[in-house]
């Protein structure tokens, strides 16, 4: 699978040139892992004492959000980013669906939508994997996850980890917005965070053990100087007996953000060389910008979190796999400055940085090397001509006019327009087709509302990429589905997600290709299809969920065997382009 992008929350950065599917990448492979899913896991029913060993389905590992690069002078790197930064990720083989490997009994607890929350509440620290039985990556990780469960059970006190089958427990998976398989989430005191380690038993165990250590280190006057320079960002709280409440809040925040920053607590009544402080207060030491930021008033949870978010990132920094996730987590629009040379970076950067300082805490500003990641420019509706600048907020983008020089005034005006809504975002769209002669209706950005949001019809929409192998495999099935359903109340449609933008108002969270969505008649809300991509499954999904589902005929998979369509698909496979440069 080739992925040239990464994603978190409602923010996406993906390459128009090469971004393979993530959430349903193997759904069209109609096989079931040859594993006895009723003999090697434990099902949680609310009391661990009653859980005798019963088996679990192949694990669903963390949905890999990646930053992938290709070039002759930049070795391919895949960085998994979740919560604390993109750590180097070792790839796990997808496995061979024809192999008869059997997963031995394990100590993984099987959860349902009914037992999930109770299990999380009962365990201050736990790891839960969300999987699909057909997912080969889940199958590959199963023995590693089971091995980790066995080792963690031997700790004192023991740690239990669990799994959820999202094909049967869709209630809890929808609640947690699980969109890719496998996904691993780490829960600490009920707060969910994405697992960011490697997909090995050793890494899982190491991560859990690290979570058991104190999130806040005790800092003495003797250790202070070395402690505050030990990492790029170090956060120290100064407390005394009167500020126990503030220290408790500080510790709670440190527990949640422990993988992002180094936290320490010091006795505020003592003297620390080279640093004057008040008590209580929080000092953020950093190896960039002014070097120190201090919060000394109103140490509420909200204020401390806001303080860390605003001061822990450089005013303007080079964005890459090691820090992009931090920008995403800030939840702010991002201003991308694409430069083509060191000279451009220095000269134009001086123009943009004053604006970046002005909008600290409101907009993030970053440098982007066009030689490595220039292919991200079209995602912001920018030409691949440098220098270039544009803002992105989720699926919305605001390109700066490339026919004019980048000036401080122009960047400031665009930034203000982004924040106050006075400047509309740009919607990328191919020309609207003059005719629709095929059974599958073609949708573009400018026709999305008219076709997809037609409240009189149910619309099943495929978002695809021309280079996506899984999308190509879906072509004959999608065409057959459209030909078979003759009702004018049901529309089978497709849209090229690389050349057309989805209107932000729909709140579609595009994470990979193909993505299949059902927009029901009478509503602008949608359902994401999570099943396999067989003709029978797709038609059954429509029949069950569409408002006009009763008009969907009974269909079996024998209708898919259209030799002409299959031949056309093979021709398309041969035309898949090669990637020869670094992309976001």
TrEMBL record:
Q: Please give the positions of the paired cysteines in each disulfide bond.
A: 135-138, 468-471
Residues covered by the Thioredoxin domain: 92-213, 404-547
Which residue intervals make up region (Disordered)?
A: 549-584
Q: Where does this polypeptide localize?
A: Endoplasmic reticulum lumen
InterPro entries named among the record's database cross-references: PDI_thioredoxin-like_dom (IPR005788), Prot_disulphide_isomerase (IPR005792), Thioredoxin-like_sf (IPR036249), Thioredoxin_CS (IPR017937), Thioredoxin_domain (IPR013766)
Return the CDD domains for the record.
PDI_a_family (cd02961), PDI_a_PDI_a'_C (cd02995), PDI_b'_family (cd02982), PDI_b_family (cd02981)
Some GO term, biological process aspect, for this entry: which one?
A: response to endoplasmic reticulum stress
Q: Which Gene3D superfamilies match?
A: Glutaredoxin
Q: Principal localization?
A: endoplasmic reticulum
- Catalytic activity, as annotated: Catalyzes the rearrangement of -S-S- bonds in proteins
PROSITE patterns per the record?
A: THIOREDOXIN_1, THIOREDOXIN_2
Could you tell me where the Acidic residues compositional bias lies? 553-563, 570-584
EC numbers: 5.3.4.1
Q: Which domain of life is it from?
A: Eukaryota
Q: Give the keywords, sorted.
A: Disulfide bond, Endoplasmic reticulum, Isomerase, Redox-active center, Repeat, Signal
Kindly list the GO CC terms recorded for this protein.
endoplasmic reticulum lumen
* Any GO molecular function: protein disulfide isomerase activity
Please give the PANTHER family that the UniProt record associates with this protein.
PROTEIN DISULFIDE ISOMERASE, PROTEIN DISULFIDE-ISOMERASE A3
Describe the task this protein carries out.
Answer: Participates in the folding of proteins containing disulfide bonds, may be involved in glycosylation, prolyl hydroxylation and triglyceride transfer.
Annotated family: Belongs to the protein disulfide isomerase family.
| Protein name, entry field | Protein disulfide-isomerase
Annotated organism of origin: Batrachochytrium dendrobatidis (strain JEL423)
